[in-house]
Amino acid sequence: MVQYRRYVTSNPDELFFFTLVTLSREQFFRSTSTANLVHDQFDDGFRYAGGEIHAWVIMPDHFHLLVAQGTRSFSDTIKRCKLHLNMKILNGKGSLWQPRFWEHKIRNDEDYRKHIDYIHFNPVRHGFCSQP
Asked: Which residues is 63 bridged to in the sheet?
């Protein structure tokens, strides 16, 4: 089995880029109301953790976040948000999510800009709009 290593830091201002994907790429987030639930849950979750969302995009089957971690571990914050959304969207019957998520520590200003651009251009790349 693959061993995943998470980046661990105690710096609440550390910036991370995350990708979370739905189970079997199911398009749970097609409706605006469901996408708003996802955004609000993660915004509240990272704010509760003392963090802040810098950029985000929600696609029908995945989403990306660029966040400042806050005082709690991002793994705990994400786990908590995913559980709350399972309850809100599926009434706790099953899971919306693939078991893992992808994270990337932002290393410098250029890396930050690159990931902000990625978030802004993701809907264009997937054909949902013609410009960011």
From this structure: 20, 58
pLDDT at 8: 63
Burial of 82 (0-12, 13-18, 19+ CB in 10 A): buried
Nearest to 106 by CA among 54, 63, 59: 54
The count of C-alpha atoms lying within 13 angstroms of the C-alpha of 103, restricted to the half-sphere facing its C-beta, is 18
Is residue 26's pLDDT more than 90? Answer: yes
Residue ranges per structural domain of the chain: 15-125
pLDDT tens digits, one per residue of 91-123: 989 899 998 899 999 999 999 999 999 999 999
With DSSP H G I counted as helix, E B as strand and the rest as coil, what are the percentages for the chain, rounded to 5? 40, 20, 40
Tokens 């995350």 sit at which residue? 18
Of the candidates 84, 76, 82, 91, the residue with the CA atom closest to the CA atom of residue 23: 82
Instruction: Report the topology of domain 15-125.
Output: Alpha-Beta Plaits (3.30.70)
Query: Which of the four pLDDT bands, split at 50, 70 and 90, describes residue 128?
Result: confident
